[in-house]
Amino acid sequence: MKLNSKKRGNSMSGKVSFYEFHQKKQPLVLINVWDDESVRILDENKVAVVATSSYALSDSMGIQDGENISFKELVEIEKNIHNSSLSVDIESGYADNLSTLQKNIESILNRNIAGINIEDKYPNTNQLMDKADFTQRLRLIKQTDQANKLFINARTDIFFYGDIEEKNKDTHLLSEAISLINDYHEAGADGIFIPGLYNKNFIEKISKEVNLPVNIMLTIKLDRIEDYLDLGVSRISYGPSIYLDWQDSHLSKTVYLSKLIRKVKELQNQGKVRLTLE
């Protein structure tokens, strides 16, 4: 499978390419990174999209997750990108007001960053933002990005706090989530990320009933990609679990990530997923 590696970065063609990577029949697989070296390894292997994990990035610096590393440190990881497109996890936006959020988005737009993850949870809490507050943030990002350069992956933590097991059985919560996702779409989201959701029936229903690419989070040790390929998702990521598994492996980053890339490329060669540009 060969993808157009020229369509990347901070341009409209980059966003078009980013959209093209999100296909239900061949979902995009993200190997989440945590430092400059892991970014370089994936970029040198021409992984289509390199995505940061805020937890892994913070923990690798010995800092607690929750917008505790500086925004500058967060976005400067883009200096290691030459072949891939980069998606940055900006948590809640590093902003307690819209003015600061706008400045942060302007900074991102001036860098080689093609996508962001932004979540609907207040920093360092399990409290979801009011829907009106979060949709206002999405609209501001869309308005700031007048050239339509960024792929905005809105993250909802509606399944990712409290009793996650019970939430994955709650059909009323499922209906609420679908309504919420549709509101996020209307406000400007280009994709929806739903960590904590593992009920396959719920995943399939959401994928059918919303008009956004659906991104789920798997755990590298526990989940098989193959078990989630027929549910209509367009993007599969791993959050910090790759970083944590690498720590347990006692392998070098190059050896660990190269083995993982080869494993996922086997699925790409079968036409089941997308990982690399070629």
How would you describe the overall organization of this protein?
This protein has 278 residues and is of the alpha/beta class. It has one domain (12-269): TIM Barrel, CATH 3.20.20.60. It has helices spanning 12-20, 36-44, 54-60, 71-75, 98-109, 131-144, 164-167, 171-187, 200-209, 241-249, 253-269, and strands at 28-29, 49-51, 85-89, 115-119, 151-155, 191-193, 214-217, 235-237. It has an 8-stranded parallel beta sheet. The N and C termini lie close together (6 Å). Residues 1-13 have low confidence and may be disordered.
Report a brief summary of the structure:
The protein has 278 residues and is an alpha/beta fold.
- How much helicity do the residues have? 40-55%
Number of domains: 1
Which regions are unreliable across 5 or more consecutive residues at pLDDT < 50? Answer: 1-13
Largest sheet: 8 strands, parallel
CATH superfamily: Phosphoenolpyruvate-binding domains
Number of helices: 11
Oligomeric state as shown: single chain
Strand order of the largest sheet: 1-8-7-6-5-4-3-2
Order of helices and strands: HEHEHHEHEHEHHEHEEHH
Decide which structural class fits the backbone: alpha/beta
Distance N to C terminus: 6 Å
Overall radius of gyration: 17 Å
CATH topology: TIM Barrel
Beta-strand residue percentage: 5-15%
Mean pLDDT: 93
Q: Can you tell me the CATH class?
A: Alpha Beta
Number of strands: 8
* CATH architecture identity: Alpha-Beta Barrel
